């Protein structure tokens, strides 16, 4: 197919029968774009007539063809352009009630109760109180790293993409329905608008844009682009994010398999995203590198998020946590006082985490430094160096730190040995 030789597929079908030849896989948007760029019009014609393509909904078929034709225009391949134009004409003529004009879609707003209306007016009718509330809204947004803009600035810019970015859905719908963009081929603009609406989970805007078959996305290789991953990750808590993700995958890859960005599982910062990628058949390798560790324990990593234990459990379920990772997770959780994670990790089997006694000693010292003494009984039997932490009485009966390093071999559990010296701790 990619070498513009579909006759070989037809020969196999004639030789062995259509039923015995595997159906044509749905190529990604990138592959179709590359076929258009290489003037593979025979293969494109074969694909357009295949059941793989004809079983796709009409709007999505039109969206795919418009995207292919845009690439053909850039390359100047007139046969591909004519092939696309003929197929667009054939599909649109068979769609009942098809109109070239995109219908004006109005927002359906549920009327609020009279009681709620009176409350809102009584609050915002007080100018000083209203300004104070709006000021605090801005403070909250900034603390959550949410982009904010004043309404006057937004109207003054009159930018469709900004309307999507800042959630001004009604303003976008009014501006978009009046613009020429709704009926013109403008791939760069169309790609930007649809991409922003999907990653920001603006469901009403996405529905309007997808109703226009000229709206498409930038073709990708068989790999989720890192920029999309980063932008979509921030929307994982939105109730519609999974639907938006599915739309993105359907347009970019169809049913074709795809990979995650360089297979770097440590970049996945939310369990919902991880589950979705697993459901899509994405394969991951277990954590092994220090790069993986840094992505997790970094202050912006998932170890510092409320869903840290859920993430650990998911990774354990798919055997993706190497034993070295546990020790680093525990050290960081202790340092930052993430007690639920510390408790969960110690409930596992700490004795299997260590490649050397030094790692066990490091964890022992971390527990002492941050007051997690109750977990010391669960550490394995090792030589522990109580560096700068061994207390001894002075001649005057007071306590002081011994600066030398003293090594002791534990003959009892670590906590029991520690209690032998605990009497020297100042009250």
SSE map:
Layout: H1 7-16, H2 29-37, H3 41-49, H4 51-54, H5 58-75, H6 78-94, H7 114-124, H8 127-143, H9 151-157, H10 160-165, H11 169-178, H12 187-199, H13 203-210, H14 226-233, H15 241-252, H16 271-279, H17 290-297, H18 308-317, H19 323-335, H20 339-346, H21 357-369, E1 383-385, E2 391-393, E3 399-401, E4 407-409, H22 414-422
Antiparallel strand pairs: 1-4, 2-3
Helix pairs in contact: 2-5, 3-6, 5-6, 12-13, 19-20, 19-21
Q: Can you walk me through this structure?
A:
There is one protein chain. This protein has 427 residues and is mainly α. The chain has helices at residues 7-16, 29-37, 41-49, 51-54, 58-75, 78-94, 114-124, 127-143, 151-157, 160-165, 169-178, 187-199, 203-210, 226-233, 241-252, 271-279, 290-297, 308-317, 323-335, 339-346, 357-369, 414-422, and strands at residues 383-385, 391-393, 399-401, 407-409. Strands 1-4 form a two-stranded antiparallel ribbon. α3 runs parallel beside α6 (78-94), α5 packs antiparallel against α6 and α12 packs antiparallel against α13.
């Amino acid at each position: 197919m990619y070498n513009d030789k579909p006759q070989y597929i037809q020969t196999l079908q004639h030789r062995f029968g259509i039923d015995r030849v595997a159906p044509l896989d749905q190529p990604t948007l990138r592959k179709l774009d590359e076929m258009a760029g290489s003037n593979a019009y025979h293969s494109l014609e074969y694909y357009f007539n295949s059941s793989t393509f004809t079983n796709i909904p009409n709007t999505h078929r039109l969206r795919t063809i418009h995207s292919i034709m845009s690439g053909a225009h850039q390359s100047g391949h007139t046969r591909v352009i004519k092939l696309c134009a003929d197929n667009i004409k054939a599909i649109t003529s068979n769609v009942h009630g098809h109109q070239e004009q995109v219908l004006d879609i109005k927002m359906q707003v549920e009327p609020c109760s009279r009681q709620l209306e009176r409350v809102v007016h009584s609050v915002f009718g007080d100018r000083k109180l209203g300004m104070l509330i709006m000021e605090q809204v801005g403070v909250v947004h900034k603390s959550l790293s949410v982009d904010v803009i004043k309404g006057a600035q937004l109207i003054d810019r009159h930018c469709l993409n900004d309307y999507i970015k800042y959630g001004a859905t009604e303003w976008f719908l009014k501006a978009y329905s009046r613009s020429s963009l709704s009926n013109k081929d403008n791939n760069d603009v169309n790609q930007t608008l649809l991409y922003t609406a999907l990653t920001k989970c603006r469901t009403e805007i996405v529905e309007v844009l997808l109703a226009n078959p000229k709206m498409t996305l930038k073709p990708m290789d068989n790999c989720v682009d890192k920029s999309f991953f980063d932008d979509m990750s921030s929307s994982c808590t939105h109730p519609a994010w999974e639907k938006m993700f599915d739309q993105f995958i359907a347009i970019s890859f169809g049913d074709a398999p795809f990979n995650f960005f360089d297979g770097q599982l440590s970049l996945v910062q939310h369990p919902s995203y991880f589950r979705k990628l697993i459901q899509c058949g994405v394969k991951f390798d277990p954590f092994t590198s220090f790069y993986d560790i840094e992505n997790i324990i970094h202050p912006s990593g998932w170890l510092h998020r409320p869903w840290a234990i859920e993430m650990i459990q998911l990774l354990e379920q798919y055997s993706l946590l190497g034993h070295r990772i546990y020790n680093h997770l525990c050290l960081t959780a202790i340092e930052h006082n993430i007690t639920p994670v510390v408790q969960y990790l110690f409930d596992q089997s700490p004795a299997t985490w260590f490649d050397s006694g030094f790692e066990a000693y490091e964890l022992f010292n971390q527990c002492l430094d941050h007051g997690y003494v109750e977990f010391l009984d669960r550490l394995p039997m090792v030589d522990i160096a109580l560096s700068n932490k061994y207390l001894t009485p002075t001649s005057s009966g007071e306590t002081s730190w011994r600066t030398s390093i003293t090594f002791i071999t534990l003959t009892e559990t670590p906590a029991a040995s520690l209690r032998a010296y605990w009497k020297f701790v100042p009250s």
